[in-house]
């Protein structure tokens, strides 16, 4: 029998106003989530992220990778990037996520946080290359980490504790009105992988 929570969660908008966030807990068994986590740790072409900020070359501790339908070219923070083609495992994950959100995605940015020392600062995913008001689906594997939203004007905050296998979708006006971050923490020593499936404008 489906649990009440399973039925309710995805349909509820987690944001109080100015956007839409949907949350599915544990879309995989813990065994499958662990298997995907281990596969991705090994198979993804992880690289430190780079940026040129005020003429200074910055290299992040967090690692990233970018996969897509096409070898898209993309520039942010003055660094040029080219997407790699989907691997079979990434395609399987994409299909699973698409079945939940009922959306389709043509690219995925992956983040690898080795420990709680690594996080992501407040930002919105509002780059011009992304479809306006499109869906961004974020899948977590590995260590539990906080994922927070802060409204740009009211400063209202919401915090989620994302567990291995959790899926969170942002869409509609979310990126125009809310920032999100992954705060650092001294409590976590294990890696976390995050996959953000995105809709690039083509
Ligand atoms: O790691 C996360 O959960 C968030 C990643 C993120 O916000 C991004 O890649 O834009
Ligand atoms: Fe983001």
Automatic annotation (TrEMBL):
Fe2OG dioxygenase domain boundaries: 104-201
InterPro entries: AlkB-like, AlkB-like_sf, ALKBH3, Oxoglu/Fe-dep_dioxygenase_dom
Cofactor: Fe(2+)
PROSITE patterns, per the entry: FE2OG_OXY
Keywords: Dioxygenase, DNA damage, DNA repair, Iron, Magnesium, Metal-binding, Oxidoreductase
BP GO annotations: DNA alkylation repair
The keyword DNA repair is annotated on this UniProt entry: yes
Membrane-spanning intervals of the chain: none
UniProt-recorded Gene Ontology molecular function terms: catalytic activity, acting on DNA; demethylase activity; dioxygenase activity; hydrolase activity; metal ion binding; oxidoreductase activity, acting on paired donors, with incorporation or reduction of molecular oxygen
PANTHER family in the record: ALPHA-KETOGLUTARATE-DEPENDENT DIOXYGENASE ALKB HOMOLOG 3
Name recorded for this polypeptide: Oxidoreductase, 2OG-Fe(II) oxygenase family protein
The species this protein was found in: Oleispira antarctica RB-8
Organism phylogeny: Bacteria, Pseudomonadati, Pseudomonadota, Gammaproteobacteria, Oceanospirillales
